[in-house]
Amino acid sequence: MSQLSRLTQNIRMLRTCSYLLRVTNRSTESVATSFQTQLYSTDSGSNQPRESFSEFRAREELKEQQQLLAQQQTPDQSSSTGGANQPEQEDPQVAAVKDRILEASLAFVPSHGWSRQSLAKGAESVNYPTVTSGLFPRGGIEIVQFFHKQCNEQLVDYMKQEVGATAPADPAAFAQKAIEVRLRMLIPYMKQWPQAMALMTLPQNVTIALSNVLTISDNICYYAGDRSVDFNWYTRRIGLAGIYKMTELYMLQDASPDYARTWSFLEHRVKEGSKMDSLLLKSEDATAQLQSAVSSVFSTARNILGMGFERR
Prior knowledge:
Layout: H1 3-34, H2 53-73, H3 92-105, H4 109-112, H5 116-125, H6 141-163, H7 171-184, H8 193-200, H9 206-223, H10 232-252, H11 260-282, H12 288-305
């Protein structure tokens, strides 16, 4: 195969990967809309209709605009410190209280969803007044973010135990199992997960969603033995992120016992990803300019999200 033919084939494969990621993002919002998630619902005894997803999203966007306007009207406090505008660090005691409330709030998600009501119930269950939920101005998305962080830490602990001192003999099988382990963490909240996905599609929460999926894909690639410092570092992580999101969406609609069809779907996607990775390796010498472009975009995304990928 000529250099030009390999370059053409490689570009087509990367376009396919990019297309899958775009379809995944659109599918996420489509699933959230089709489920007509009833967010921040009223009490069961109330006769008032619950909010649709579209109404909830419009209300949250209006709330975000009001918060931004209030911040603009607040006098700048930096002038009293010589003009320095350094980020304020959260008090460790406050952070500990917030983590305790968020941890307790997860128990109320099955009955109250990813909502302020769950936060209030969680605060009350650990002997804090319900008004303590005011520590979470962004509402239910803070429970979602805490849950993602907790699951990612548990996944890293699992992979450390599985890997030990040596890299896995079959990286593809290891990555497949790691994705399955991570997705199984969603099962206790599967009925409420469309609501969490709907929250993550809100404009102000996009960075949280991207940060989560990139963290998952990077951790899995790292513990699967990927120490590459070339173009493959990016293609493997982007490809794995696409596989994770596609499988997550498939899982929402899977009614098979123990989500058997989901794990079969995951197995096929991993095999396809392995074939794509093999093709990219064979044509690596013909993609120097493409490598530079993709790596620049990925690095920019990490900087925007404030992600350092520090290992635990």
